[in-house]
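Subject: design request, 536 residues
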């Protein structure tokens, strides 16, 4: 079984990824045999930069007992900081520690920040922090901090330059996606900070290639995680801030390139964000992890960018908005094919907000740890879609992998209707078709199982916590809407855990509707509520 999963996963990888996976393994082995290490410092001259105010970091460092809180998990370091501690809460937590985002907390003084940088550079046994991804994010944070506080210290610059030497020789071609883009953003900062034409050349080439590939025509980031969209946009805006407020040097200028893609991403994010400021928690997404939409739009405005009306299409996401409700629909493929790390088995999933409040929601993402919870959150049953038997639409496995995957096809589409099918159950001889009809006071969803029509199926409705649900004669009644069904079906109610944020689970109710052949679901809204709040 594992052999098949590996085969169908590797089948989608790019030759470049496979080559660099092998190349970097051989390179590491060679360094180990030869006992060769990268230099820890490289003497270099830095240059003063000018930057507009960026978005302050969330409070994650608390001076009392050296307490850090990332991903809603808290750790006290009694003595020296263990920058490599992946045992306590996993690699993602340790990455957060090594990013140094906390340098940009509003209450962190220049002296405290400088002390933490010096603590880090005087640590002799760094490992996690010297991986390309944390180097990339930490490099930007250090340069921003040093710039805002007008600090120029040769000792810090020498370590920073040595870290960028490691990064430039270990670009994440084996992963690609947002990792490689973060490498490019960071090298752009290094290029300006050190006036380094070599870094500028690498950064420019990567940005031209990766922004063209990773930012879709409709402005969505191609990994289709709204959370990572926010993260990438934040970094893109920081880079625009950098090039806008400092003179060009060398042969390359990326100002217009950054501005063009930042505008597209701003438009897309504004379009998919719900009225209350929430992003849809599709694929790997969580609230309060990245800068939120309001912060990003305000930052963009300070750089001369304001959201423009746009129509989302190429991403495979759709957003329908009426006076009463907002409906987010996912008819997207696993994207990109060669990088499915943040993908879920969620084809034809939908999210529904009524009068600015969450009603039917995605279950979210609470962890990147290798555990049953990670598998569950990526599974078909964790989303508001149809599962046939106990099979997955797409074969999600391990922490970040997908083997065989559903391929959706849009059959027809208009302003208030979309019809699509997918072949995720092709090994059963089944195609699932789902139609959405959008009216002012109701939504109708029609599911059809084509092929082996007698195979049992079920669809899921995950309600937001504290939604009062009454099940009477197979009708679901709530304070917001009444949900009815046609054809042969059976409803069971169950409990589930909503993960709005990492490592923060809230109990809520789930409806499971069992059916065969076809099912029509009608969500009819009540009228006695105030109008929704205006958009940002």
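Subject: RE: design request

Done. Sequence follows.
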């Amino acid at each position: 079984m594992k052999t098949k999963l590996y085969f169908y996963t590797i089948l989608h990888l790019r030759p470049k990824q496979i080559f660099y996976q092998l190349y970097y393994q051989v390179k590491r082995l060679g360094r180990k045999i030869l006992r060769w290490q990268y230099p820890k410092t490289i003497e270099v001259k830095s240059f003063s930069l000018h930057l507009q105010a960026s978005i302050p970091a969330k409070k994650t460092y608390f001076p009392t007992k050296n307490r850090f809180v990332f991903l809603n998990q808290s750790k006290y370091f009694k003595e020296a900081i263990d920058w490599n501690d992946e045992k306590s809460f996993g690699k993602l937590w340790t990455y957060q520690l090594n990013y140094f985002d906390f340098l940009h907390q509003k209450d962190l003084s220049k002296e405290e920040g400088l002390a933490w940088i010096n603590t880090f550079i005087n640590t002799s046994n760094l490992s996690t922090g010297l991986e390309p991804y944390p180097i990339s994010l930490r490099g930007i944070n250090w340069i921003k901090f040093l710039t805002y506080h007008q600090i120029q210290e040769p000792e810090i610059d020498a370590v920073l330059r040595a870290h960028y030497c490691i990064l430039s020789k270990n670009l994440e071609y084996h992963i690609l996606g947002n990792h490689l883009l973060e490498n490019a953003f960071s090298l752009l900062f290094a290029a300006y900070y050190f006036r380094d034409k070599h870094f500028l050349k690498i950064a420019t080439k990567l940005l031209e290639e990766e922004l063209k590939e990773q930012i879709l025509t409709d402005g969505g980031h191609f990994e289709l995680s709204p959370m990572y969209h926010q993260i990438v946009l934040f970094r893109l805006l920081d880079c625009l801030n950098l090039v806008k407020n400092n003179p060009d040097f060398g042969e390359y200028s990326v100002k217009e390139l950054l501005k063009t893609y930042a505008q597209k991403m701003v438009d897309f994010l504004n379009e998919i964000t719900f009225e209350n400021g929430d992003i849809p928690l599709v694929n790997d997404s969580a609230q309060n992890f990245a800068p939120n939409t309001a912060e990003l739009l305000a930052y963009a405005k300070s750089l001369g960018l304001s959201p423009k009306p746009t129509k989302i299409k190429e991403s495979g996401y759709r957003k329908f908005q009426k006076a009463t409700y907002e409906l987010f629909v996912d008819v997207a493929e696993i994207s990109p094919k060669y990088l499915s790390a943040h993908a879920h088995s969620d084809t034809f999933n939908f999210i529904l907000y009524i009068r600015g409040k969450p009603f039917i929601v995605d279950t979210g993402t609470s962890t990147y740890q290798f555990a049953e919870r990670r598998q569950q959150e990526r599974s078909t049953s964790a989303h508001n879609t149809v599962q046939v038997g106990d099979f997955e639409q797409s074969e999600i496995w391990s922490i970040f992998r997908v083997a065989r995957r559903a391929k959706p096809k849009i059959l027809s589409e208009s302003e208030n209707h979309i019809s699509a099918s997918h072949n995720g159950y092709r090994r059963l001889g089944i195609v699932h078709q789902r139609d959405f009809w959008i009216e002012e006071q109701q939504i109708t969803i029609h599911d059809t199982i084509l092929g082996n029509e007698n195979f049992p199926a079920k669809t899921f409705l995950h309600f937001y916590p504290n939604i009062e649900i009454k099940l009477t004669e197979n009708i679901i009644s709530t304070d917001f809407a009444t949900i009815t069904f046609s054809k042969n079906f059976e409803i069971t109610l169950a409990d589930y855990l909503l993960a709005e944020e990492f490592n923060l689970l809230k109990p809520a109710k789930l409806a499971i509707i069992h059916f065969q052949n076809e099912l029509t679901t009608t969500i009819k809204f009540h009228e006695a509520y105030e109008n929704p709040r205006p958009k940002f």
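The chain has twelve helices and 21 strands.
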